[in-house]
Amino acid sequence: MTTEQIAAHINPWEVAQHQFDLAADKLNLDPGLRRVLRQPRRELTVHFPVKMDDGSVQVFTGHRVQHNLGRGPSKGGIRYHQDVTLDEVKALAMWMTWKCAVVGIPFGGGKGGVVVDPKKLSSKELEALTRRFATEIEVLIGPERDIPAPDVNTNAQVMAWMMDTYSMHAGHTVPGVVTGKPISLGGSEGRNEATARGTVFCIVHAARELGLDLSDTTIAIQGFGNAGSIAARLISEEGATVVAVSDSTGGIHNPEGLDIARVVAWKKEHGTVQGFPGATDVSNSAVLEVNCDILIPAALENQITSRNAARIRARVVAEAANGPTTPDADQELYRRGVFMIPDILCNAGGVTVSYFEWVQDLNRDHWSEEVVNEKLREIMTRAFAETLAMAKREECDMRTAAYLLAVQRVADATSIRGLYP
Question: What superfamily in CATH does domain 10-185 come from?
Answer without folding.
Answer: Leucine Dehydrogenase, chain A, domain 1 (3.40.50.10860)
